[in-house]
Amino acid sequence: MHDDSAVPRRARFRRGAAALTFVALTAGTALTGAPAATAAGSAALAGKACTPTEGFSGCRLFVPSEAKQGFDVPAGVTSLDVRAWGEGGAGNSMTSGGAGGFVAGTLKVSPGEALRLAVAGLNAGDALGGKGAERGGNSSGIRTSTGSALVIAGGGGGGGGDMAHGQAGAAGGESGQDASEAGRGGKGATGAKGGAGTGNGAAGADHAKGGAGGAGGAGRYAGGGGGAGYAGGGGGTGAETGSSTGNDPTTGSGGGGSSYAEPARVDDARFVVGSGYKAPEKTDPFWAGSDNPIDSGVAEGGVNAPGGPGRIVLQWRGLPVDRLAQVSGTDVTTQPGHDVKPLAVVARGKDGKPVADASVTYTIEDPDGLKPLFYLTGGPDDDETVVATDAQGRAQTPWINLSGSKEGSFTVRAQTLGASTAFTVRVKESPYVVSAAGGDKQKAEQGQDFADALLARVVKSGKTAPAGTEVEFRVEDTAKGAPRFEGEDRVVRVKTDDSGEATAPALTAGEGTGTYTVAASVGDAMTQFAVEVVPGDGSEEPGPGDESGSPSPSPTTDPSPAAEPSPSATGTAGTSTTGGTSTTGGTSTELGGGSLASTGAGGMGLVLAAAAALAAVGFAAFRFAPRMKLRSRDNA
Q: How confident is the model over 294-309, as pLDDT tens digits?
């Protein structure tokens, strides 16, 4: 997670690492940070997945952006826990900006309702603070699809430009605070009424006129701008000369904007006002400080710095998760210095059906000091990330970086409200390298054979592996609706030919739809294939899943490090991690947003190359390849 992380983190930058080249398996989402739309076209929620507080199953965090932001209420959800901060006003060496406001409560909603969110930040927000010597903070807001205000967190006032100490007004409660310079500072907004400007400072806009902060007065030394809000704070006065006597400056700072919660829709509304430049609710788990000495933390007024950004967090109680089933990454073994492909779980309820929109927190436990880290987009690699389950209950980690040369093992723990599971990743030197040489990233309809055989290439000690080397192919999903070899076997063993290649028997799609992982391993070396099952009638609707009614996981479309080169028959060095899907999970760059923004959250549909037909010659080549089925190890 990067500097806007909603949970405590132990980030560690990789030193001396080469720049990563990220590739996407499929088309991207409409909003980064959300899981991609599934192949069936189901919408993903906007916002960045975050770890919910106790009692909640789903969580989304929104940060400033000039792009549009929207949120569609998940199915079955009738209330949202809301927390919103406005932006702090900017300050200088003599006058500090005012803190942004904080509003919290329980917002009554309808399943599927479209909300519009605007998070305060540079050039972004529900309304903009006034210009001046230092600008006032912008407001954060949640509105209905028609633009009616539901929750507004006001922005703090901006500092004046004179050479005497002052303090801009903090944003409200229901009323914003006045700036400290008596007779020269702007007034805070009162409810829906904008605060008065002082001297040549402009008044803040009333709610009916948009809630913008008033501009600071002009002059050689300008006044501070008022903070935006439900109504805007007034601008401070400006002056042609900068002389002042004692604590009586010749210019004034801006007043704070007001905050708001719609009484008919928000229960237990709570308004918290900061103290001067100090942000409100700094003990809240979703508040975040700055990771550098220049910028301000969330909603902090600037002290010789810009004000801190706003933030909105939405939490809800969805269907409870009874278990997390491992569907990709079980019993992974890799060599030192080789990245680990994404691990994945499917969240299921007590009825066996998938649970969508649940936040899954992945944490790396590293007792052997191997220093594995998740690759995270837009921030430093970290040992913790949060991923939301998609419409088919799947939550997939980013790739995991292993840059050291040590052997050992580490654990990746997946946890959500009500369930947890742990993956063990072994890191061990092996003379073998296994790579996906054919059949990766293809799709088939339910009940049909995949057109291309899964082909694994094996290298031993830099040379083509001897003929007869045994390769195990394993479908990692244990659900009855998952693909099976020749329609019945989850695990088979196949021997390599003279070119070091092992061809698996026909892989038949089951009733479940989505992406499945097949591991191919030789001793302690392995690689993975990703295959997709689509509905048999050619539609893009989710399939029925296994006999319990739970559809299988769908793909995500997040970037991952570029795939490593596959080894050749002549002994070219390769890796055991070629192929497979790629992801960044809920750890994305900042999200789209802006003033009164609204957008659909669905991503583009998955587009994968598929074979046109199963040729008779090709079919015979893999259908009757030498193989030995393994039944005892898995009861497969």
A: 899 999 999 999 999 9
- C-alpha dihedral sign at 124, 128, 131, 133: negative
Rounded distance, CA 206 to CA 412, Å? 52
Where is 522: in which H helix or E strand?
A: strand 514-522
pLDDT tens digit string along 450-498?
A: 999 999 999 999 999 999 999 999 999 998 899 999 999 999 999 999 9
Which residue is listed with tokens 């002082």? 198
Q: What are phi and psi of 432, to 5 degrees?
A: -95, 150
The Cα–Cα gap between 385 and 301 comes to 29
Q: Which residues contact 114 (CB under 8 A, 6 or more apart)?
A: 70, 71, 72, 73, 145, 598
Secondary structure tally for the chain: helices H, strands E: 1, 37
What's the confidence (pLDDT) of residue 44?
Answer: 62
pLDDT the model gives residue 514: 85
State yes or no: pLDDT of 589 exceeds 50: no
What is residue 62's three-state secondary structure?
strand
Contact 229, 154 (CB under 8 A): yes
Beta bridge partners of 290: none
- Nearest-angstrom CA–CA distance, 129 and 254: 9
Q: How confident is the model at residue 575 (pLDDT cuts 50, 70, 90)?
A: very low
* Residue 292: other Cβ atoms inside 10 A: 7
Which residue, 511, 487, 501, is CA-closest to 622?
501
The structure tokens 């402009």 sit at 202
Q: What is the CATH number of domain 323-597+612-629?
A: 2.60.40.10
Return the CA Rg of the chain.
28
Q: Provide the residue type at 155 as one letter.
A: G
Cβ burial 594-609 (10 Å sphere, 16+ → b, else e): bbbbbbebbbebbebe
Which residues, 6+ apart, have CB-to-CB distance to 633 below 8 Å? 491
Q: Average pLDDT in the 370-393 region? A: 91
* Residue 366 Cα to chain centre, angstroms: 23
pLDDT at 566 > cutoff 90? no
Neighbours of 336 (CB within 10 A): 16
Quote the Cα angle for 567-571-576, to 5°.
Answer: 35
User: In whole angstroms, what is the distance from residue 487 CA to residue 505 CA?
Assistant: 10
pTM reported for the whole predicted model: 0.73
What is the length of the chain?
Answer: 636
Give the C-alpha separation, 626 to 624, whole Å: 6
Q: Which of 313, 268, 297, 309 is nearest to 51 (CA)?
A: 313
Give CA–CA dist 480/274, Å, rounded: 56
SS3 435: strand
Task: Check: CB of residue 215 under 8 Å from CB of residue 132.
Answer: yes
Q: Judge contact between 237 and 198, C-beta under 8 A.
A: yes
73 is written with which tokens? 């209420």
Task: With H, G, I as helix, E, B as strand and everything else as coil, classify residue 465.
Answer: coil
User: Quick one: tokens of 627?
Assistant: 């193989």
Q: Is 160 helix (H, G, I), strand (E, B) or coil?
A: coil
How many whole angstroms separate alpha carbon 158 and alpha carbon 167? 9
Record the tokens describing residue 566, joined without a space. 């596959």
